[in-house]
From TrEMBL, chain A:
Binding-site list for 1-deoxy-D-xylulose 5-phosphate: 157, 184-185, 206-207
Gene: thiG
Top-level division of the source organism's lineage: Bacteria
Active site: 96 (schiff-base intermediate with dxp)
CDD domains reported for this sequence: ThiG
The keyword Transferase is annotated on this UniProt entry: yes
Gene3D superfamilies in alphabetical order: Aldolase class I
Keyword flag Cytoplasm: yes
Described purpose of this protein according to its UniProt entry: Catalyzes the rearrangement of 1-deoxy-D-xylulose 5-phosphate (DXP) to produce the thiazole phosphate moiety of thiamine. Sulfur is provided by the thiocarboxylate moiety of the carrier protein ThiS. In vitro, sulfur can be provided by H(2)S.
Pfam families: ThiG
Subcellular location: Cytoplasm
Protein name: Thiazole synthase
Oligomer and partners: Homotetramer. Forms heterodimers with either ThiH or ThiS.
Pathway: Cofactor biosynthesis; thiamine diphosphate biosynthesis
Organism: Shinella kummerowiae
Amino acid sequence: MLKLYDIAVQSRLLLGTARFPSPAILAEAVRRSKTEIVTVSLRRETSGGKASGAFFDLIRELGVRVLPNTAGCHSVQEAVLTAKMAREVFRTDWIKLEVIGHHDTLQPDVFGLVEAARILTAEGFQVFPYTTDDLVVAEKLLEAGCRVLMPWCAPIGSAMGPVNPMALRTFRAHFPDLPLIVDAGIGRPSHAAQVMELGYDAVLLNTAVAGAGDPASMAEAFALAIEAGRLAHSAVPLEPRDMAVPSTPVIGKAVFS
Amino acid sequence: MRILVKGAGVAGLTVAWQLYRHGFDVTIAERAGKVGTGASGFAGGMLAPWCERESAEEPVLTLGRSAADWWEAALPGHVQRKGTLVVAGGRDAGELDRFAGRTSGWEWLDDAGISALEPDLAGRFRKALFFRQEAHLDPRKALSALTAGLEEARMRFLFGAAGAPERYDRVIDCTGAARIGRIPNLRGVRGEMLSLESDEITLSRPVRLLHPRHPIYIVPREKSRFMIGATMLESEDAGPVTARSLMELLNAAYALHPAFGEARLVETGAGVRPAYPDNLPRMTEDGDTIHVNGFYRHGFLLAPAMAGEVARRLLAEQRQPERRAS
């Protein structure tokens, strides 16, 4: 079973709550995907942190664990402040840490990320950092006290799926025992299945579900794909070969040449 | 039947108008000193159910498609039936296909088609979607005209009064965001807008600029003015527009046409839209009061259909008073 900062979870799908057509559709997506963790943005989806009581009540009524995030924060100071506000609003030490370095590509500012992770860990937060697939940055995040890492597989909202499977494979191999969640860049259930087959522990999604024509059905499709990918990984899939291997002996041919 | 309508935004005035047309004795109470001081005054006034269907549920289209006819009948000359143009910047061109895949009632235009409709946009976009059946109106002018029409019909307006002194058979509460926290599950969705003034560019119809993060629309108004909106934030804060939102709205206007860079910023505004969890309006009953609320971003679009529903309800009650819920 997956444990995130000592909390055991069954579902390996974490769902963002932004940009759904309506809270009712969000609730249906949560129900159909059986997700146990949703992320909520305090800054980007609200107004300068002055959050709607009613919207957050709706989130709480979903009956799932809330992982507040610092989406839209462009500096260490802003991210730390948002994390503290989130702790007040949702009464949790969990924080999905985003420090955006580039407004256009939403690429994380990894230097600010490490610094903010250090500050927040010291203040008792349990940090889920949104990072790149860079190993050195990942090690620094662990030094800063993170016990979960969330590498991207492509830029946020791009829906491209894993653009560098090699890097994801290396990342997994380098941290064999650490909970690793692929965050950002997933577009389709097949992408989610692919990273789960690589041995990732979970997948965090938002746009791929919220922006789908039927978000609730897509959420369920992702849950199934994640389950399939997880099962495939534990079943040890075949590694690709560069030539065909017949599954039954070929009569009359002793060897292939 | 004596009816009190509470709230003189688009919902209240539309309901009052519809009930007056059916011969009810109607009084309107508005806590503010004038009409349209809530979210209605900041509306885009787009009667665009086909475009809205991109993210809204089916009733927005089924209830909204007759809105333009209702407004035209109530206020002749106010409705402009010029359609909606939907464009996307070069890098976001994929957004147009996505939008087309989720809507109906559009046709593709090439650059020649775009410049035939909006000459000032010539050469700026290679492809656009045109929603021919859509319309728009100026919300503030429309609300003033409805008010003038109702006053002419000798309807009573009680401004600023805390409570109406007389007895009424039914109260229709159309006070929108004022009911947040009192009607279960009603929440606020903050919206911010701005108005620009420019003689350097002319548009004849609303233009929507698609963007994965900040889709915006520009609605031309009289006197070289353009209304640009609107943000969608899960917040009940009605405070002034934020620097970030202002930047995003201006940026989008500038991306549509650089002439907006030289325009004058003549107004900024922010309001709170009342919404239920499915973002669809609802008519609910509470004793003698009927609540009509939750118009979200579809006040001008869906108020006529909801007003019709209220009228049908009261007419049925008038015919069969014993069936009235108490």
